[in-house]
Structures are given as structure tokens and as C-alpha cells.
Amino acid sequence: MTHRVGLFGGTFDPVHNGHISIAQSFIDSSIIDELWVLLTPFPPHKQEKSTTSYQTRLDMLEVAFSGMEKVKINTVENSLPKPSYSIQTIRHLKKEYPDTTFFYCLGEDSLAKFHTWKFYDKILEECELLVAQRPGVSHDETEDDILSQTHFVSHTPLDISSSDIRSEAKKKTSIREEVPEEVALIIENEQLYS
To answer: Does the N-terminal peptide bond of residue 43 adopt cis geometry, omega within 30 degrees of 0?
Structure first.
């Protein structure tokens, strides 16, 4: 039986309780043995120059997931050529860990846009998708080739977004219900987003 690993990527600026909740749903699905959280240095599709430093986002990720034993933070994308496309990360990891079966993890809202991703068809050649369900998302527009490679996991999404947290932090509104305590402390101590 090969080791099965889910790959869950993002900028995590900042990581929040919604990310932790979705990670738990991926683990609880029993489809994967472990979840690797991939921190993206600078994502090709987001052109904002004001992304928080890689190291600070990594520090927040490490404290946020420290209590989850089946979750590992993986920094491989920081050492790969830029820009960071998911396909190059997946191919690199498959070469590095030939006995591992990888699943690419995303939320159901992202699945609806997956066909617009660069090299999405190549990603499907390399691994299957693990998708956390979101009520009310329709797949009428989603191509059959994508759905045939998709495993859905049950999940109750939290209505939290990193961009909302950044604007709340800027307004000095409390974010303590949306992020883990240790992440809130980093944001406050470093005066991120203000």
C-alpha cells in the first residue's frame, strides 16, 4: 500500500481557522494518510506586491498547524524556479517521493475555476483531486475529465477569508475568532496589515 499524501497549497496571508477546518476535513476523509501544506512564495495569479514576507507566513503556518499530527508544512516551492506553478511542484515531489500517491487538495469553489488554471490538464495527468464540499456550488460547467478525477470529501466551510482578516486588522478590529491565538499574536506583535 503506497503512502497517500494530500497537497494543500496557498499563500496563507494569513492562515486562518477556515484553512485549519478544511485541512481537518481532508485528513478525516481517510483518503489520505497525511496532508502537506505547501506555502507559495508568490503565486503567479496574484499580482499583489504587498504579500507578507515568506518567513512570517511560514511562522504563522507552523504555529497554526502545530497541534495536528498528520499535517506537515512543506517549503519545497520556495526552492523551485519562480513563478510557482502547481504542476512543477507536483512533478518535483513525485520524482522525490516515487512511492507516494499524491492528491491535489482544494475547496469546491476553486474546483469551479480549475479549468482556468495554467496546465490544469497536466495536473490531472499527475494526480487526482481531493475537493472539500461547499453547499450550493454547482458543477454544471465543470468538465467531465475533471470530475472523473475528483474525490469529494464532506466539509462544512467557515465563512472566513484572508482578505477580510487583512482589512479587519487594518481597521484594528479583533480577528481573534477567525485565526488561532498564536497567529493573532504574530499579527498584532508585528503589526501586519496595518
So the answer is: no
Residue pair 86/112 in contact by the 8 Å Cβ criterion: no
- Assigned architecture for domain 3-159: 3-Layer(aba) Sandwich (3.40)
Side-by-side strand order, sheet with 34-39? 71-74, 34-39, 3-10, 100-107, 128-132, 150-153
pTM, entire model: 0.94
What is the tens place of the pLDDT at every residue in 49-84?
567 999 999 999 999 999 899 999 999 999 998 887
- 9 forms beta bridges with 38
pLDDT tens, residue by residue, 116-137:
998 999 999 999 999 999 888 8
The rounded distance, in Å, linking the Cα atoms of 41 and 61 is 13
Going by their DSSP bridges, the two strands 71-74 and 34-39 should be labelled as parallel
Strand blocks (E) in the chain: 3-10, 34-39, 71-74, 100-107, 128-132, 150-153
pLDDT computed for residue 72 by the predictor: 98
